[in-house]
Amino acid sequence: MYWKTIALAILLTCVPISIVSFISWHVGNQYLIRQHQQNNEELVKDTVRQIDEQFSQLVQYALHMISNPILKPSLADTNFVDQFEKTQELSDTMYFIENGDPLIDQAYLYVEKQNKIMQPMLGLRPLEDQADRAAWKNIMQVEKGIFWTNHLARPFHQGGSSHAIVMKLPFNSQKPYGALVLYVNPAKVNLNANSEQVAFVLDGEDTLVGQSDASKQYPEVIPDIQGVLNTIKRSYDTQSHFQLPIEDDKLLVSTVSFEKMGGIWTFVSGTPSSAITAPTGPYKHVVLVYWGVSLLLALALSWFASKRMYRPIGWMVDLFREGKAETTIENNELKYIEEKWRQHRSVNQTLQSNLNQSIPKVREALINQFLSGQAAHLTESEISEKLQGLKLDITQQHFFINVCQIHSLSKDRGQLTAKDHQLLTYAAINLLHEMSERLASYVHTIDFMDGSFAVIGFVPAASPVKDLKSLLMELSTDMIDTLRDVLSMPATIVVNGPTEVWTNVPYLLAQARRALSYRSFTSASQLLEAAVVLKQANLEVEFHFELEQEFTHTLNLGLEKEAVEILIRFVEALQNDGAPEWVVHQGLTRLRNNLFRSMIQSNHNPYAIYDGMKLQEELEELRDANACIEWFHAKIIKPYIDALNRSYHQSMKHIVDEIIQTINVNYMSDLSLETFAMEADVSVSQLSKAFRQMIGSNYIDYLTSIKISHCKKLLVTTDMKISDIAKAVSYQPPYFNRMFKKLEGMTPGQYREQFNPVIGDKKQA
Length: 765
Description:
765 residues; 6-stranded antiparallel β-sheet; alpha+beta
């Protein structure tokens, strides 16, 4: 262990010295580089301004020159051979233009109609080469009056740069006759570069316009820089900085973009890092000497310090051994001390953690067990004793129950997914738990995993029950407001209690959950008191059989829109009768089952249409009327309509619809299915089957129901004789009496006496 300590001391002493020496040298270089980049940034911007001014002056000069009267449109038809003096004057003008600006290398006048080129040194020549002729003719196709090009080669194999400014003549004319082309001399572009600085200018197509002498030493750098620039989104005054490796060195590159000739040009400036850090060379040797001297001194001090380090180690080993003769296998005292310390600390933390974690979990498990009825055999004193052992005192306590049901989001915000519902329920439980702690000394929550949960509060019995009741209602109101404001979710909260007896809590919880189903069937937030709701519950709600039959009949006809309207009336009728949530669910379940029975009668298999759908579970999760209507429409009506459309032939459906209309208008006549089949040119059996599939009953039963329905109306609203009423619908009176009693359970006379008050009063009189 002694020699390990020496090696560690030497290492720990040398490393900081080495790090400080390296950082001193590295920081110095980085400082020089940052200073260079800051200074170079201003120089780059100044160079960009000069380049911009150079080309701006060139454009201004060119615009001034093309206003010369000699460049008028008549040149297009000028005979340059016969008008020698004019030709010479034009040549002198071109010579003056070519030598008027240092950036201009050569100036060419192009006359498109004559396919001729004029240049001071070449004179006037026709373009005979096909490639030159096509290239110069193409510049006249460009819509701009003045533009920059780097693709127009100089004619007659002149060589040199292809960068040029093209100005159509006359300028901005709809029909130019030619163009003035000024080729730029790249060597004249002012780059402000020293002998070591890489600098060049790229035009809007990232083509090299001009470069410094140092750039020619690194030809491989230009494609790399162009590749980096292609990854940068450039606009006016865009700046960027990056580094490129070159010949065992790094090139520090700065770029500035500027707008010129309708494109984004870029000026690039780069300097090798070795040229920037060259002044730090002597300083590097000083740092190495300093590092060597410091290292020798550190070694000497480490040798002395290592001898002193072992003394306290031995004391700690003896302390842990406690006088016992223990030996370590590796003879490593530090590892021995570490292992002993970890053992003591681990045992202590484990015991403390297990104690802290087990008590709340066991306490919650015992409460849940009692509330679920699994510990109902325990008396008040027994459960109190068990909870007191788990650090919860229920003596001198009042208990209250809050059961909360989170409702779905409104239609404009969309329905909740299963994950969203879990997250919102979790957030709501935490909110109500925290709010209950204002009133309660201990709060226990139960998640029923169906969007509802319960909060059970333990309140010290210091105030009367009446005062606690009012405080509980205020707290519940605040809970509803908080859920609305924080989670933007409506909710129903059922309050039950307080009670002084803990064994009453399971009964109060069951009452509160039962009262939750008596909430008004709306999406708005509601606050209910369990005892009041269950006492005033109106279970005698009328079920609307007429709307049920009308809905089933309409849906069998394939009338989706009308069926939805009847469904809305059905739900509204239930709500108008004061039906709570569970009654509306029960009514919709009965409506669904009645529709299934009608489907089976019409030879449609509802289990095949709704295969895999958990209809009952989805229905019970709905918390307002609009959601129920939308769900019934999407999950029940539309699949059935689709099945009807697939099974009914359209022509047959049209025939049945016409039969229905005829029966509703001419029900008093003697109508036979054979007559309709003959008129429609179909078989009687085929028509009978289609009628039963669409209507849900056979033809005779449907015709009989229509006639009997009309007779019932005449019995109640008129004084006609029963025999006349029978003849009005083509029935013989005896047959009518038997049929009416079979269908209605009473004779026509009894029906009139029961439902016609005028006839009943006359009979009593």
